[in-house]
Amino acid sequence: MSDARDLCPDARAPGLLVGENVHIGAGVSFGAYVVIHAGTRIGAACAIEDHVVLGKRPRLADGSSATGEVSQLELCDRVTVCAGAIVLAGARLGEGTIVGDQAFVRERSSVGAGSLIGRASVVDNDVSIGARARVQSGVYMTAFTLVEDDVFVGPGVVMTNDHTMARHPRQAELRGPTLRRACRVGGGAVLAPGVEVGEEAFVAAGALVISDVPARAVVMGVPARVVREVADEDLLERWR
């Protein structure tokens, strides 16, 4: 595990500290006071803004569900990590991904090409996000969540993965929500553990989703109920 003693000043930017065996591709730009921990790989033409931390090793509480090997952090080409964001070792950011100011991406999570993680959002451990997803500001995406391509997640959405709130055996499996291709989740919605939001479904703002949402269904309310179907003119292919 790397610590401050393994970091060396680098002349490419004010206050830049770089660990051992870090790969930095061509045309990468750095803001001030960036920290890059050992083994991190940064692709070509990436933009790393002020006070970003890359490749931090996770520190886990006793009994944490976030177990397993942690590899090195990989940023593909043309990734932007905005000011104050932290991306842990073991994560992978696909080509052209943007991670917003003060966002936090944990170990063994992956973000697909062209996706956006909004300001102050959290992508917990073992989350998989597809290509071209739009995760807005202040979202909490819990561990073991699956997000497919072209999903929209509105600001302030909260996802959960534990019905017992930590009153379960250590070996119990936790399950985050599954968001299928091109579904949309409105601001402030809450998704219960293990629920599936179907392809092209629409979850209204403020909804509490405690059961699966069928493909193309529009749901709203507390708890969320189906009120109609997404119209043909609102499907993703009409907006490309």
List the helices and strands and how they pair.
Elements: E1 8-9, E2 17-18, E3 23-24, E4 29-30, E5 35-36, E6 41-42, E7 47-48, E8 53-56, E9 74-75, E10 80-81, E11 86-88, E12 92-93, E13 98-99, E14 104-105, E15 110-111, E16 116-117, E17 122-123, E18 128-129, E19 134-135, E20 140-141, E21 146-147, E22 152-153, E23 158-159, E24 178-179, E25 184-185, E26 190-191, E27 196-197, E28 202-203, E29 208-209, E30 217-220, E31 225-229
Tally the structural domains.
Answer: 2
Strands across the major sheet, in which order?
4-7-10-13-16-19-22-25-28-30-31
Mean pLDDT over all positions: 95
Total DSSP E strands: 31
Unreliable segments (pLDDT under 50, ≥5 consecutive)?
A: none
Summarize the biggest pleated sheet. Answer: 11 strands, mixed
Terminus-to-terminus distance:
45 Å
* CATH fold node name of the largest domain: UDP N-Acetylglucosamine Acyltransferase, domain 1
| Tally of individual helices | 0
Estimate the global geometry from the Cα principal axes.
globular
Beta content comes to: 25-35%
Over the alpha carbons, how many angstroms does the gyration radius reach?
19 Å
Helix content range of the residues, please?
A: under 10%
Record keyword descriptors for this entry:
31 strands, 0% helix, UDP N-Acetylglucosamine Acyltransferase, domain 1, 240 residues, single chain, 9-stranded parallel β-sheet, mainly beta, globular, 11-stranded mixed β-sheet
Short description:
The chain has no helices and 31 strands. The protein has 240 residues and is an all-beta fold.
